[in-house]
Amino acid sequence: MSSKKSAHEMLEDENFKSLARQKNTISWVLTIFELVLYFGFIALIAYNKPFLAQKLTEGKATTVGIPIAVGTIFFSWVFTGIYIWWANNKYDRMVKEVKDRIGG
Amino acid sequence: MPQTTIGQVHPTSILFFVFFVLVTLGITYWAAKRTRTTKEFYAAGRSITGFQNGLALAGDYMSAASFLGIAGLVSTKGYDGLIYSVGWLVGWPIIAFLISEPLRNLGKYTFSDVVAYRLHQRPIRAAAAAGSLVTVLFYLIAQMVGAGTLVKLMFGLPYEAALVAVGALMIAYVLFGGMLATTWVQIIKAVLLLGGATILVFLTLNRVGFSYGDLFGQAEKMYTNKFLEPGGLVTSPLEAFSLGLALMFGTAGLPHILMRFYTVPDAKEARKSVFYATGFIGYFYILTVTIGFGAAVMVGQKVIMGIDKGGNMAGPLLAEALGGTIFLGFLAAVAFATILAVVAGLTLAGASALSHDLYVGVIRKGVANEKEEVRVAKIATVCLGIAAILLGILFKGQNVAFMVGLAFAVACSANFPALLLSIIWKKFTTAGAVASIFTGLILAVSLIILSPTVWVDVIHGAEKKAVETQVKDLETQSKAKIEGLEKQKVAGRPAVEIDAAIAAEKAQLEAAKKDANSRMPKAIFPMKNPAVISMGLAFVMGILVSLLKPDKAAEAKFEDEKIRTYIGVGAE
After folding, report:
1. How far is B494 from chain A (nearest CA, A)?
2. Which residue on chain A is closest to B285 by alpha carbon?
């Protein structure tokens, strides 16, 4: 392709820069969320077992720990979903724009 | 004790199993015509959709060990089993956020394609292949030993015969059908496993009026509220943190999982497949945990542990109790199919490390034609299959539970740091990558060998048992003596004198116990899971070595890599 720019020129392109920046932000923020979610759960088990052992409602068997554990599984999936939703809707469009503009 | 037919050969399970084998062999026959090039053999011609790959990823990840093992752990340990199951899921979001798209955009068939993208091919290929092969082999041994034991337990088939059957079928799938057949075996198995587990959970919840509260209420009544609280699984925070790291980042370093991302056409499908996989796997663990609680309540721990101490038969026993022998037969066949699918995926990953990375990348210095590479991959498949059978027989009756842990430790220490750094860090060099991989690999393997799990329980298992028996004997003897003294009290001997004698006896027992315990074998490395050290140092070494000796050529190529990482220009 004759209109194709060099790698260096592409990296300097504002659209590319913004795309890479947004992708990194989303990826790392969500990674940190996931780490906090899981290691927060582990920290509760390590340091505050009585909290997890509390009954959810007085007189019933279910402990606070059960929805927290299931919630950790559920929110891991939700975080993944947020990322996929963002990437499918926003990221792919930005990629297309960059490709169209500077020739990929 | 209620009747169980586990351990007998069920006509229904044979029927289901034969049907599964026929269907999968049919698929293999169909796939064989589409398995001629390397792209077809390793990556199913990149023809798999995101949804299909999501199911196949779930199929690769949901082993019989996790299905039977986690249900068993929950049924015997309650809440602790639930904690464990959470850890198996949390690596998947990490794959979505950091790994799946760059992996797909930069590589061709194996994750070492990505690590080697702008570095020197031969050293990287050799190191990455070593990391892959060690991970795959340990995982494979654990699966094979589990397969033999499980089939023996469920069908009464001899251990060796079971291994040969599993080995022969997996070789057939991979050898003739390559990735395409392996993917469809995974998909079918995932559907069967998710379907079977869903039915079992439906039957379980049906018994308690679809109320989890009632299920937990009954569990609490039978096993006290301790059953619904965190117990002894997590003792030291550092140990828990280390295990968490291994599970989380190990998942993102498993070669057979990473390889699956090359079966889809582009990064978009790769990313979607992680979302589906995470959903399926999360759902599966919630089902498995429910099955564990159901088995504890409706079958009972006594019966479960009477058949298998580890509780592995909790799921099948519950299936029999609620759905009769036909459902048990179905589930037994599903468990067998599960093993088959997982070992097929592992064998393919191992074969591609041998052929694509070692043979083509190292021995032939990257020059080999399609035909030759496929031929080598097929030879590697047969060799690995036979090795898996022989290793399974070699480790018969051994405690291999640590091997899955070891596979995850190696994956997170040797494979993950080098993969991540090569994607995100411009200054990463060949020497840095090699240092990182070998640091992680050697530390993970040696620290686990020196840890309590292997050094004490496996290598010095006999000594440990001897000391435990001795302590028990001492306790029984001393108890008898004290009881004798108590009787003298009734007979009229002065109480003061007897109390003194009892105290002396107790002191003597403590001394004798202390003496015996001093002979208890001690682990050289105190932690059960070394990830915090082995993965940490793999990152440190990778970074330090790269900074000490910069590689300008590799840095210059990072621009190309970066563009391809983000927008997939030039991706295969």
Report:
1. 47
2. A73
Asked if B105 is an interface residue toward chain A (Cβ–Cβ < 8 A), one would say: no
How do residues A34-46 score in pLDDT, each as one tens digit? Answer: 999 999 999 999 8
C-alpha B109/C-alpha B107 separation (Å) is 6
**B118 and chain A in contact, CB less than 8 A:** no
Q: Which residues of B touch A31 (CB under 8 A)?
A: 93-94, 97-98
Tokens of B282: 């999360």
| Interval B195-249: pLDDT, tens | 999 999 999 999 999 999 999 999 999 999 899 999 877 678 898 899 999 999 9
The low-confidence residues of chain B, meaning pLDDT below 50, are: 1
d(Cα B82, Cα B71) in Å, to the nearest integer?
9
- Chain A nearest-CA residue for B87: A38
> Chain B window 54-83: which residues touch A at a Cβ cutoff of 8 Å?
79, 82-83
Angle (CA) A50-A52-A53 rounded to 5° is 60
HEC string for B50-61: HHHHHHHHHHHH
All residues of chain B having their beta carbon less than 8 Å from the beta carbon of residue A20 are 562, 566
Q: Which of A80, A94, A100 to mutate to test the interface with B (most CBs of B within 10 A)?
A: A80
**Cβ contacts of residue B562 below 8 Å, gap of 6+?**
A7, A11, A20
Cβ-contact B79, B230 below 8 angstroms: yes
Amino acid B113: pLDDT: 94
Residue B355: the pLDDT is: 95
ipTM above 0.90, yes or no: yes
How far apart are the C-alpha atoms of B442 and B437, rounded to whole Å?
9
**Direct distance between the N- and C-terminal alpha carbons of chain B, in angstroms, rounded to an integer:** 60
Distance CA B536, CA B538 (A): 5
Cβ pair B251, B257 in contact under 8 A: yes
| Token output for B270 | 């790769």
CA torsion B248-B356-B102-B243 (nearest 10°) is: 10
Q: Which residues, 6+ apart, have CB-to-CB distance to B433 below 8 Å?
A: B115, B119, B123, B124, B127, B418, B421, B422, B542
pLDDT at B302: 93
B194 and B283 Cβ atoms separated by less than 8 Å: yes
